[in-house]
Amino acid sequence: MNCFQCCMSEEKVNKKSLKKSIKEFHETKTLASFANISFKSDASRRRYITEEIKKLGKGNISAQIFTFGELSTATNNFDHENLLGEGGFGRVYKGIIESTKQVTAVKQLDRNGFQGNKEFLVEVLMLSLLHHPNLVNLVGYCADGDQRILVYEYMAKGSLEDHLLDIASDKPPLDWKTRMKIAEGAAKGLEYLHETANPPVIYRDFKASNILLDEEFNPKLSDFGLAKLGPTGDKSHVSTRVMGTYGYCAPEYALTGQLTTKSDVYSFGVVFLEIITGRRVIDNARPTAEQNLITWAQPLFKDRRKFTLMADPKLEGDYPVKALYQALAVAAMCLQEEANTRPLISDVVTALEYLAANKDVDADVDDESDSGSVSGSGSGSGSGSASPDRSSNKGDKDVDVEGDGR
To answer: Where is the segment annotated Disordered (predicted)?
Structure first.
């Protein structure tokens, strides 16, 4: 706790107001109805999505409407040489829009994949109404026939996962300063969703593969298909089916389907621990006791003398030791099993601004003289039960636990 409080003692930086407000969110009933809509047939889904997005395009929705032909031309007929990546949602291609010469990332949704018509519509609406430097920019979309395609700004460095968990042998590992910079920016994206958006938005799928990086390693959150409007008024949570990725779901959400912004804070803690350790949250290639990152870290959080064992070996010791302690304190606080003991994401941002500032935080550090804990006086960091280990060693399988509507 002391390390975390040390971070928090720094004076908060006054947050600059965003250039683009989200006045559209005053019409919350409209957005909420889209986010929770059900469809009777594939034909009605296609017709509804096309008509509603085009209708909104005349007002709130600024994203460009592309034809399938335009995006085929942009990607050279979705040539495999332009493939940037693929997952349960479909494939992402690099494309150049012929009319503007803008380089983009074109995500063609798999009709049989995890991301369906509802998720497609939610993502178009969310990214059209939400604007922040740490959220990916939606250039446009295509809803021709049964095609569902999203067009984003191109992020030159790919995802955080590419540089942290799937790092190629010829690629240098991320240094400590860059890791803290990425964590800070990603947290600011969540802060905007939680505390500026009205009503708040719960991201619900915070993970390394959804954090994209530009040429200077500035992070942006992407893939808003699972985003959910947060509780309003006197409501403490929203109830929904459990969606997300194994290992990243908060315990209370995984068990009850009760979703709050603190659920995102837990997921942030998981990713931040991945950033610090260089380990996947679920990695079946490791020895049994180390396959679940949270379970492995839990006893180490309790003994300061073991903190350096948690640093990514690829850093080769090149990091400020006290900053490591403070970073682990932030992660441990985010991973508290009880949601109400986790910090607000704005407090996390304040701590990370301090860590990312690259100040000399190593004065008067003696890592052998104190066996204190960073896990606080609460229930401790999240348990392994909050991170089911029923996935591949990449731990990135999207799940629909209950299988009914959102």
So the answer is: 362-406
Q: Are 395 and 246 in contact (CB under 8 A)?
A: yes
Sheet holding 90-96, edge to edge: 64-65, 138-142, 149-153, 103-109, 90-96, 83-87
- Contact 179/275 with Cβ under 8 angstroms? yes
22, 131 Cβ separation under 8 angstroms:
yes
pLDDT tier at 153, thresholds 50, 70, 90: very high
Reported as a pLDDT band with limits 50, 70 and 90, residue 264 is very high
Token output for 52: 């509603």
Distances (CA, A) of 165 to 275, 324, 335, 399: 9, 19, 20, 21
Name the DSSP class of 195: I
* Residues tagged active-site: 205
Q: SS3 for 67?
A: coil
How much is the pTM? 0.76
Domain 37-153 fold is Phosphorylase Kinase; domain 1 (3.30.200)
Provide the CATH topology of domain 2-16+158-400: Transferase(Phosphotransferase); domain 1 (1.10.510)
In eight-state DSSP terms, residue 161 is: H
107 is in an annotated binding site: yes
Confidence grade of residue 220 (pLDDT, cut at 50, 70, 90)? very high
